[in-house]
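Q: What would this chain look like folded?
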Amino acid sequence: MSTTTAVAPLTIQDAEILVTAARRAAESAGVNVSVTVLDAGGHLLAFRRDDRAVLISGETSTRKAYTALQLNAPTADLVDLVKPDGPFHSLPTALDRPLLFIAGGIPVHRDGHLIGAVGVGGGAPEQDHGFATAALAELV
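A: My prediction, written as structure tokens:
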């Protein structure tokens, strides 16, 4: 008989830590962003958009989080896969899903299990990836 250990899901408190840390990192870089946190089922746990963030950043942060969650990979690692010569070049249009292959989305794991994702939009893709990475580093 095998035993399974339950993994604690991503909580609202975890989501708030992620949002706060991502926004703090962006603020220190002088960038206005939107931050989205999704649970393992793709449900919205937290969302914040800075007053001066471009409006589309709300959509991009959510799509980045969703993509990172669905593919269990940072979106920064997926960008080349959807280029015209990449193995997944038709994936964004083949599925009726809100995928976005731009850096800024990162899956969240606990004890080796996928429990959610964070997405940041509003800065340059490399900046958004850095802000999401900084947020993840704050989650213990």
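The beta strands are 34-39, 44-49, 105-110, 113-121.
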